Amino acid sequence: MALLHVLQFPDPLLRNKAKPVAVVDDQIRKMVDDMFETMYEQSGVGLAAIQVNIDKRIIVMDISDDRNQPLCVINPEILTREGVQYESEGCLSFPGVFDKVERSAKIRLKALDRDGQPYELDAEGLLAVCIQHEMDHLDGILFIDHLSALKKDRARKKLEKMRRREF
Ligand code: K1U
Ligand code: ZN
């Protein structure tokens, strides 16, 4: 396995749109495993392939406290949506920036697993938020795109300030 470089805002590659995976083969499984290793190493609960400059519709997630419930999501589709939730989100491409985003409260997801087998999943709470956040990444959409101009500007300034402190 290998650790991958996570792109940071404002890298234009984060705006790329991912393409569907045609066949889930060993090459795709290697990408999935590398993405899991990277997500766990960065203490994230999710990671989309676009964030590591892979233009494929692949997401990895683990929202469990013990970090032992990996969820591999390939070619995701949201079948149904219900209600609204407004919760705080973070992003590995925006370290230190958190803000509330409006998302569907409950979703039904259809996807392929690490073996290329189709499955469906009902999600709510953090899992539903995380799936929607990661699916946005696959379409080049970032969570700050959901914020008001004022909050977006505040997030940008916070990121700049944190980066100045790093150097
Ligand atoms: O960059 C990413 O896409 C990963 C992101 C996923 C996410 C977390 C929470 C809400 C929406 C999307 C993260 O893992 S952010 C860091 C994190 O570990 C975290 C943040 C908030 C709650 C729980 C965990
Ligand atoms: Zn993100």
- Cofactors and ligands: ligand K1U, zinc ion
How many β-strand stretches? Answer: 5
Class by SSE composition: alpha+beta
Largest sheet data? 5 strands, antiparallel
Write the layout of secondary structure elements.
Elements: H1 26-41, E1 46-48, E2 58-61, E3 71-89, E4 99-112, E5 118-124, H2 125-138, H3 149-166
Antiparallel strand pairs: 1-2, 2-3, 3-4, 4-5
Describe the 3D structure:
- By secondary structure, the chain is of the alpha+beta class.
- Strands 1-2-3-4-5 form a 5-stranded antiparallel β-sheet.
- The chain has helices at 26-41, 125-138, 149-166, and strands spanning 46-48, 58-61, 71-89, 99-112, 118-124.
- It is built from 3 helices and 5 strands, in the order αβββββαα.
- It binds ligand K1U and zinc ion.
- Residues 91-93, 133, 137 line the site of zinc ion.
Q: Outline of this structure?
A:
The protein is 29% helix and 28% strand.
Which labels suit this protein?
28% strand; binds zinc ion; binds ligand K1U; 167 residues
